[in-house]
Amino acid sequence: MRHGLLVLLAASLLVPPSGSASAPAGPTLPWELVDCTYLIAFASVDRDRVIPHLPAGFAAAGAPTTVGPLTLPSVVNVGFEVDVCAQGTGVSGLLPDMQYASFWVAVDAPPAWQVEGINQNFVNWDVLVPDAERRALMQAAGLPARDGAIALTVTPTPLGETLWEASWTLDGLGTFRAEAVAMPGPGGPFDTWFVQYTEASDGDLARWRTNYVSDDSRRGFGVLDADPGSWLGQMLPAPSVPITALMGHWSYLHGLLELPA
Q1: Separation of alpha carbons 18 and 25, rounded Å
Q2: Separation of alpha carbons 112 and 207, rounded Å
Q3: Predicted local confidence at residue 108, as pLDDT
Q4: 246 touches 221 (CB < 8 A)
Q5: Which one of 71, 139, 158, 179 is most buried, counting C-beta atoms within 10 A?
Q6: Distance of CA 175 to CAs 144, 203, 231, 232, Å?
Q7: pLDDT surpassing 50 at residue 14
Q8: Can you spell out the DSSP letters for 8-44?
Q9: Secondary structure (DSSP) of 188-217
Q10: Model-level pTM?
């Protein structure tokens, strides 16, 4: 990312939001991803297919559509995210060539778990954690942290667009592929915070929070191929689905990962 240093300098002036009635009882780890090329594929999924995969008390964001006395089938966007970064935090400091992948959906979180000052909340599921020491800590807490790898390429097209292609594998889960064409034109910047929650095998929660900063993000359209043998592939309406996409360059800064006990 061309302006990564400027982003880091500006973000160093920020203080992470804090404060909630509930919090994970285990250790807290730093969580940053710096100078990342990212692609998020958004697949439309029936709300009823997502609800069984949410922790107790969480609801998929957005109200079902009603017409008179009828409640129409409603859909939510499930995000399939990959990040290939210049560096990221491990247990003992920054590590070069960090990768990250996650699957998530926007939620309405229980008030006790919300972080004051942050209004973007997500539940995420299986997570790619390539560094063994951090992955072992997460797995010991019952979290679905997996080893794996990402291949992500960006290719200009003759029409002035860019073709984004990603293939990624999470051990024990499956292989996923996405390709999308980014619309031409300048990308939009943003600078905000989000919180995401991951359910452990015993029902406890981990909580991630970070400030994500981008000076180059674009929207596009494409196709996602999910591993048909994975639970994610079975949650989708078909193994291959059309997607909207968000892609570009960003950093996750001042992040924290609070682990369950």
Answers
A1: 15
A2: 12
A3: 93
A4: no
A5: 179
A6: 16, 26, 12, 11
A7: no
A8: HHHHTT-------S---SS-EEEEEEEEEEEEEEEEE
A9: PPEEEEEEEEEE-TTS-EEEEEEEEEEEEE
A10: 0.88
Q: How far is CA 10 from the centre of its chain?
A: 23
pLDDT per residue as tens digits for the range 148-201: 999 999 999 888 789 999 999 999 999 999 999 998 766 778 899 999 999 999
How far, CA to CA in Å, does 257 sit from each of 33, 181, 200?
12, 33, 13
Residues 6+ apart with CB under 8 A from 198: 123, 124, 125, 127, 143, 144, 205, 206, 207, 208
Three-class SS string for 123-152? EEEEEECCCHHHHHHHHHCCCCEECEEEEE
β-pair partners for 245: 41, 220
Residue 158, CA distances (Å) to 40, 162, 163, 195, 222 in order: 23, 9, 10, 39, 17
Alpha-carbon span 95 to 109, nearest angstrom? 32
Q: How confident is the model at residue 2 (pLDDT cuts 50, 70, 90)?
A: very low
Is 4-12+25-63+74-258 a CATH 2.40.400.10 domain?
yes
d(C-alpha 190, C-alpha 216), whole Å:
9
Distance (Å, rounded) from C-alpha 224 to C-alpha 95?
Answer: 30
Type of residue numbered 108 = D
